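Purpose: get a first structural picture of the assembly so the mutagenesis plan has something to point at.
Setup: two entries, given in the order below. No constraints added.
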Amino acid sequence: MAIDKSIIGRRSPEFTCTVETGKIKEFAAAIGDMSDLFWDETRADGVVAPPTFSHIFRSGKMELMLSDCGLDATKFLHGEHEISYQRPLRPGDRIRYFLEVIDVHEKLGRRSGPMDIVTMETVLRDDSDRPVQTIRQTFVAKR
Amino acid sequence: MQNKSQYTDYYNDTWTEDGAAAIGYRRAVLVSVGRTVPRRFNEVIPGAALPGFERGPVTRTHIVKYAGASWDFNPIHHDEPFAKRARSGGIIAHGMMVLGYLGSLATAYLGTAAIDKFSGRLLEVTRPGDTLRIEGRVEQATPRGAGGVVVLSLTATKQSGEVVASGTATATLPG
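Result (structure tokens, whole complex):
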């Protein structure tokens, strides 16, 4: 059965988070990246977050969002992930964001047959309401 | 330099593997890897391979470390009985951990040059024991103003030859 397209436009509550130096280092360590860009606080322009760091703000919330849309989150796997950047995240950034379902469609996989694809978007905004990063991610479930 | 890399391997393989070393400790004995100034457009050679690296063999410790760092505690990444019953059929690494490796390759090359877009696609799952080869190349280089825009292609390939993830990074470089 196809997913009801009326979930397009559904939004999560708004969340806020502060980017922290320790979290950036913990994340860099977890991907085995020892670059000064993420570790050296004495650098003239300070440390920045690795490019995929912002994903941590969505952890768990995406699965809850799928459930809120009446979908079985355990049936979905991550497909594509795309981040557009206005600038990198830095320690002290206070960001606000929510998750939004922006597309639902079906696709006929050559090997796997009919699949449902849900796309979610998150715009991270700073204190002055300027967008910092836009994350789009697709979730794929076999019928 | 030889000694330095052996030293690095030692800490990679023992201290952090069994979780005994504090994150800051390992960092304190190492020099930075990768570039810390912006890559300049006039240094870019279209089609050139990026300096690749290996990650792994991926262990449950690596996966748990990523779970904590990313706040992603989906039990398919750490709870073996749960994961066995799930669609994954056992513990699998976070897809975003593998895309994080691709991001590392991009930033090691680009330095502080502005990344405009990063995209990744997960093709296969990564399980404990898998070793991933992270590679990339300069796919496009287009002059713009004094500098230019580059598109890097990035891949993570298992020891079996299967590509587990592919991606691209687009960045604006100074001249």
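Residues 16 and 35 of chain B are 24 Å apart (CA to CA).
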